Amino acid sequence: MTTSTAYGEATGTLTASVNGVESFNAGEVYLTNENEQITIVGVEEDSPSPLRIIEIKMLSNTQNGDHVFPGDQIRALIAGGNTAPAHYLTQSGSVNVDFDRENGLYKCHFNFTAKNLFQPKDTIGVVGDCVIHTNPISKQ
Asked: Is there a cis peptide before residue 136, judged by omega within 30 degrees of 0?
């Protein structure tokens, strides 16, 4: 039986620059802890950003500090485009984690390069930060 913790009361920010232009400011942020994996998602519906979604997946027990992608702790750095078809495949990146799990404060700084799987197959550089506060609700 899988135990998960959903943080339905998650609030905070996830912002990023794309190719040096500050353009991603998530209108909604999500944090889940399922199957021994923490997932942080920022969604930006209405902006001129070339991205609509940024998602970071890491092991639940990831320690504070710097981690590279691909690597042992960071499982995915995902960028989804604002125009179809656009899905960026991450080539390399890093995440600096600063989690205070006891108090429900999750901070991270991320940096990655990704290439669009579709035409024009452009490469983007994404640099950003998240600060998320949670009120945990346990689910069985």
From this structure: no
Q: What number of CA atoms fall less than 13 Å from residue 117's CA on the CB side?
A: 11
Token pair recorded at residue 128: 């950003």
pTM for the structure as a whole: 0.87
Q: Residue 125: what residue type?
A: G
Rounded CA-CA distance 65/33 in Å is 19
Model confidence over 86-123: pLDDT tens digits?
788 999 999 999 999 989 999 999 999 999 888 888 89
Cα 137–Cα 106–Cα 49 angle in degrees, nearest 5: 105
Q: Which amino acid is residue 110, in one-letter code?
A: F
Joined tokens for residue 70: 């691909």
Q: How far apart, in whole angstroms, are the C-alpha atoms of residue 93 and residue 29?
A: 21
